[in-house]
């Protein structure tokens, strides 16, 4: 109620002030009074009325409106207009002042409230511009042809009016001259438009290719914890959608902005030359269009971000279902998963409908405003022709200009806001580009000799995605050089975590891992990746031949080395039985091979590097008993290799030189198979349970 009462008092005060202003203007119309002196008197009288009637502090919004309304006649008089006028002119000036005041309140004041956000967007926009640095010759060429096309289009409209005037009072020389110049400028406009589009698209493609490469390199450099907390669909969306949007948003928007600005200024010069009164009338569309566009940008950006997130969620759902299609089929859950994906799509569809509805309402408001201005312009133009102030050709030229400048004004307002709002896609790209991996890779140590002696010293570790769940607690273990150490224990006790830490996929929160009495982070990252090889339970193969997968990541790897590694992994025989041997394609993810064959290829891929430390994480689970025994024996009797074997098959660990039983995040027991069996502890009970389950 208080707000309504205050608004009512303000409206009443402004109404009384306007009435007093109209009386003063009418009374002074017959006297010679300087326009600006009269404007000052009107402004003081109006503000005094509002202050007295409002009974309090002068509100800023009515004050700005009355100040503009009072000063407008003086401004018009300064450029050759009439300061007075009847009730119709007074009402038109009041409407223009109100539109300007509303635009200021909504656009400028609102923008001030979002100053920090706008600043961030401007910084992002500037960064995108700097990334176009290598393409500046293409951009300069594009902007040159852009200017040529814009100027030529305006000249075509000017000479169109000249041709029409000559149709009434035919003068052959002037008619042919105007017609010839129309043809010249038409050709120049076509050449400029075509060349501009080609050069700018070339620049966009170059930018997209270059930034995609940088982003993909930045993504692959991140630590594994980054991928644990970031969905795959989101990362691929950056590459497939956001980067192209970055390139097009900046380059095409600047193209449209400069072209429209040149056409607008050039058109305004011609329009003012034809009729400054009609030009001022046309420009009244500017504040109303700006107000509508500001409101539109606010809601449209929010809905665009929500649509982006919803689309990413739908893509993630589709990827999850397709990657697990065998599980879905085995549980006959096709309809359920289809409904889940449909629900995601419906969410995205609803957001797009809301976003497009906002756009439709915005366009409708802008077009109605433009239509109203156009009707007023035609009405005044008829009066000017009757008074002899314009010719019919001039009015036709002005109408052509007005149709273009109306669109140009709407385009300028839209593009100026859209360049900052749509550049939000660049923010997510720069977050990844600027992100530094949490794991240091600046070590430089690469000794010629390495024994492979590993020490886990008092490790404490929790995965970054679940920082409150401790996986390892004061974990200590020594892996003697040249020996096989087996880690056993129930699932979830940290066996695979030890392998990931040794491979430097994660960093422990406390403690350290030593290789030959030197911290792991001190070694060169590429050197360490060759000296410590890991084979996981679910190995990943890449599209390509068997040879390509075994030699993956190595620049110079001979065929003899590939074959020798395959023999050590007990893979050579089955590879030679394939249709093309080592040149056989394995398919996407190795799906053309069986699981046991994929594991053997993965073991060969690890062995071809001749590592000093070899990590086998449940890799023999898909091998038959004979193959498992042969592989483990071959790996165990290599004197220059330290092997860390993680397995649930307790029979396999009998070959190990040392067995460590993990429980509660630390080592519970350690020793040989015989020592642990004699101790009658945890390992012995696990063996007995395993034997009972096997029988």
Write up this protein.
- The model is unreliable at 27-34, 78-84 and 106-115 (pLDDT under 50).
- 32% of the residues are buried.
- This protein has helices spanning 2-28, 35-54, 60-78, 87-113, 115-131, 136-168, 172-221, 224-229, 232-274, 276-283, 285-323, 325-330, 334-386, 392-421, 424-434, 495-502, 525-531, 546-550, 559-568, 572-576, 595-607, 625-636, 673-679, 682-694, and strands at 454-461, 472-479, 484-488, 510-515, 518-519, 532-535, 613-617, 642-646, 658-663, 666-671.
- It has a 6-stranded mixed sheet with strand order 6-7-8-3-9-10, with helices on both faces.
- It folds into 3 domains: 2-106; 233-430, ABC transporter transmembrane region fold; 454-694, Rossmann fold (3-Layer(aba) Sandwich).
- Helices cover 67% and strands 8% of the residues.
- With 695 residues, it is of the alpha/beta class.
Which range best describes the helical content: under 10%, 10-25%, 25-40%, 40-55%, 55-70% or over 70%? 55-70%
Strand proportion, as a percent range, falls in 5-15%
- Counting structural domains, the number is 3
Shape: elongated
Count the DSSP helices.
24
In short:
With 695 residues, this protein is an alpha/beta fold. It is built from 24 helices and 10 strands.
How are the secondary structure elements laid out?
Elements: H1 2-28, H2 35-54, H3 60-78, H4 87-113, H5 115-131, H6 136-168, H7 172-221, H8 224-229, H9 232-274, H10 276-283, H11 285-323, H12 325-330, H13 334-386, H14 392-421, H15 424-434, E1 454-461, E2 472-479, E3 484-488, H16 495-502, E4 510-515, E5 518-519, H17 525-531, E6 532-535, H18 546-550, H19 559-568, H20 572-576, H21 595-607, E7 613-617, H22 625-636, E8 642-646, E9 658-663, E10 666-671, H23 673-679, H24 682-694
Parallel strand pairs: 3-8, 3-9, 6-7, 7-8
Antiparallel strand pairs: 1-2, 1-4, 4-5, 9-10
